[in-house]
Amino acid sequence: MNELGVVIVAGGTSSRYGKKNKLLEYILDYPVFIYSLLNFRAACPDHQIVLVCHPDLIDTYKELTQKFIPNNNFSYITGGKERFNSVINGLNHLPSNVRFVAIHDAARPLATKELLFKCLDSCKDKG
Known about the structure:
With 127 residues, the chain is of the alpha/beta class. 35% of the residues lie in helices and 20% in strands. It has four helices and six strands. The model has no long low-confidence stretch (mean pLDDT 90).
């Protein structure tokens, strides 16, 4: 679907979670954030998926993504001070052909491509 872009926000510090970053914790075989990339990768091309990362962790996200999703073409950018700044950074990094955008919190690994398509259909239908 060439008109769809996805911004996955992973720019936080997990300060309420504790000493670790919850997005880097493993659920079964993968870190939490990988599930969102895998699920949405099936819905749009890699180059139309932007992972917004905390500046201190961008290299970690890139390394883990390469390990679990080799040869991907995702975009990685740093987040802003607040979540809305991170979302704006992600939106500004999407290709110009994108007409519809899904904003997703990387801490919600169970969202599926089917849910994404349902939301997209509703957006197209209702405006």
